Amino acid sequence: xxxxxxxxxxxxxxMTAMSDVTVLLxxxxxxxxxxxxxxxxxxxxxxxxxxxxxxTSNVTNILVSPTGEVFISVAGEADPDASAIYAKExxxxxxxxDYLAEKGKxxxxxxxxxxxxxxxxxxxxxxxISPASLGLTDADIAQFAKIGNFGxxxxxxxxxLALSQVEQDQTFTKFAAMTPEQKAAWNANRNNVRVxxxxxxxxxxxxxxQLWMRAIKKVAQRDYPKFDxxxxxxxxxxxxxxxxTPFATIHPVLDNLQTIxxxxxxxxxxxxxxxx
Amino acid sequence: xxxxEQSDKGKKKKGAQKKMPIHVDFTxxxxxxxxxxxxxxxxxxxxxxxxxxxxxxxxxKVQKENKQQASSDKAIxxxxxTERDDNGNPKVDADGKMKNIIYYYMGQPExxxxxxxxxxxxxxEAFLGNExxxxxxxxxxxxxxxxxxxxxxxxxxxxxxxxxxxxxxxENQRLYDEAxxxxxxxxxxxxxxxxxxxxxxxxxxSVISAxxxxxxxxxxxxxxxxxxHVDSLMLNLKPQN
Lengths: 276, 241
Fold this sequence. Notes:
heterodimer; A: alpha/beta; 11 helices; B: alpha/beta; 16% strand
């Protein structure tokens, strides 16, 4: 009887194919991903059957926390070429040098910087003081323009910028974890970096929220035609709030927008089907 | 695959070095890739938020239009409310859905001699989705009230689907939108005017749902308004379920 010889096989598994697949997947995720924006409070938006997508460029997001603090974030044009293309449309004979100089003018940083400058000017004017007395240098403004989502009284911007990046983030996360009483106590102390853009009901002139929104509108009208167009259509402003938040908390935001005649805007929702 | 074979075509020289197959182990590479994939998967938002467009009337205009519209018998007023517990958190049902309630009345509220609303005018409904394509809850009421417009829109949708407006996709859509907007405003179709009023404790979800119902029911005449005195009195009268 012949013996059946069992050939010993190596247990090595060839990982090349696996590696190919993972690299493909990785490429896919890298290209399709838009990073989750760091937000000072996490809210769960209500759902609707609307299928219109939230724009990621040329939009002002107004975030209302469950306890009523307001945060604003402004996103400019994501494509650095957009402004140059627009300049070319306006003037087909534009020289190459001017064309290159136009590039990147509509980026988030640049529009935010203009807005901050505008709001400081308006704020100082409303208070009857000089903008310089707010103590914010051009470097401070440039630094502030890098912050995606902000929400603090204009007075506290200087204090906020003095904090390190980590401390800045912690200000919001710590605040979000407080009870409503603690929050009130925190915001009552002028030594703290208070959280939320102040929106007092009555008072002389415009409140800070209105100043910010009006500054955004002004700056858009002046230098950012695409942003202005989005604002006029109502796509340029998106209000985001938690679905459990009582209407009384969000109503002041809508009311303030109405007061400064920015009555066209969008509300952020998640998608659901008609059966839900 | 991962090994590079070096053949020497049978010419074996004495003293030549023994050639070993080169084998590259890709396992750590795969490990690292998987980690990166996990990172990107967790950090991305695949589902983008949707938006609901809303136009609020300017503050000055509200009062003028209020008078005009409230006098109309076309009006439906929705009063939104959410049940909350003592801590102010919304109560939820067994499915975890918030208990949003809609009180509604048609036309003008009936007042007694003293100017107080007559009890029992408010009716109660809830936000319910379709079941087998049949609208339920408040949607059924609105569908019923706006059935003429919905019937016309359904015809237009059929045309839109068959590309009867235009063979070009975008042009078809544009012409459909135009025609639909016309139908929504056509006077003889007896469309309702909906007044949405939220109580302070009403959840944001209920407000969004109410606005959403407007677009589902193809109602283009609606307004988000503040509660007035009569409305609050009516809510105090504890509507019958």
